Amino acid sequence: MANGEKSSGNFFGGVVREMKRVSWPSRKELTRYTVVVIVTVIIMSLFFWAVDLGISAIVERLVG
């Protein structure tokens, strides 16, 4: 076996071992995390929309 094949085999073996040690969230936790992410994205989108609207109004007054 070539040296590159050994190292990639060791790498993927290590990945499999680490994946077995991972603490996966329960369905309830996963749902809660997903809701938090979606709500956060909505809030941030509204914030940046409002900032963009404000900056657009300021630029419009300065230019127009």
Can you walk me through this structure?
This protein has a domain at 25-64. The protein is 88% helix and 0% strand. It has helices at residues 3-21, 27-63. It is elongated, with a radius of gyration of 24 Å.
Which stretches are low in confidence, meaning pLDDT under 50 for 5 or more residues running? Answer: none
Distance from N terminus to C terminus (CA atoms, Å) equals: 72 Å
Number of helices: 2
Helix content: over 70%
**Oligomeric nature of the chains:** single chain
Mean pLDDT: 92
Radius of gyration: 24 Å
Order of helices and strands: HH
Fill in the keyword field for this structure.
elongated; 2 helices; 64 residues
Summarize the helices and strands and which ones pair or pack:
Layout: H1 3-21, H2 27-63
What's a concise summary of this model?
With 64 residues, the chain is mainly α. The protein has a domain at 25-64.
